[in-house]
Amino acid sequence: MIYLTQAEADALRMMEKFYIGKEYFSFPDFGGKIAVPLFSHDKKEEFFLDVSRLQIALKHTLQNRARKTVVLARLDIGGAQHRNPDGEEVPCPHLHLYREGFDDKWACELPATFSQPDDIWRTLDEFLQFCHIVKKPNIRKGLFT
Hints:
Radius of gyration: 15 Å
Number of domains: 1
Strand order of the largest sheet: 3-4-5-6-9-10
Number of strands: 12
Shape: globular
Strand content: 35-45%
Order of helices and strands: HEEEEEEEEEEHEE
Helix content: 10-25%
Low-confidence stretches: none
């Protein structure tokens, strides 16, 4: 398990990220997922953009990871409410941000920067901006998006 201080996690989340490949990715159909590699400007840090879609429900998850396994930010759309460690219930859609000592176990209501969570394409673009992904990957619409 990788341990980050809150300052380290915040710095990684705010760091500009770049997709340097030429590959095109298809937005996942039901039950699918993609993991897109991203890098810092100096290529010393590697990140991933994860996009997944549940098989039955219209649930989407957009996630930004650092150091292979550390979830910096995760946006859940169309799923169940989330119970934080203090017992607070947070409705879906909601945003998980890394919190020192708790990883991604805390969620908050979706910030106003996400203008239309029912529009997955707009939300994906807003999530890329939120995570400071400045050179965006090429993601094409899938059959059911």
